[in-house]
Amino acid sequence: MDFLSGLPIGQLSAGALLAIVVLAILRGKLVPRQQLLDTQADRDKWREAAEKSQVIQTQLGMSVEKVLTAVELTNHAILDIRELARRASEEPQ
After folding, report:
1. What are the pLDDT digits (tens) for 31-78?
2. Taking the CB of residue 23, how many other CB atoms lie within 10 A of it?
3. CB of 18 within 8 A of CB of 12?
């Protein structure tokens, strides 16, 4: 409320103070308590959702890493089997 810095607050009438409060509300400098509580509740809800999402993403990342390791091992085994089959087919009988 920087627009109040130059005003002599002690010398203002009740009507002037009311006008200042109304202007502060209209400019968004003052908000009703319920709006503040609603905003805080929304903030808390979204923070909780973000934290849950982070946990789930971490779990998914770890799962993908495990699956990737299994796929790499399977791929390596298949390549070894193909190589052994190729060698066996090239050997004289």
Report:
1. 889 999 999 999 999 999 999 999 999 999 999 999 999 999 999 999
2. 14
3. no
Q: pTM score > 0.70 for this model? A: no
Question: Nearest to residue 54, comparing CAs of 43, 40, 62?
Answer: 62
CA 32, CA 34: separation in Å to the nearest integer? 6
C-alpha distance from residue 31 to each of 12, 21, 27, 38 (Å): 23, 11, 10, 11
- Tokens encoding 36: 């503040």
Residue 36, amino acid:
L
CB neighbours (10 Å) of residue 24? 15
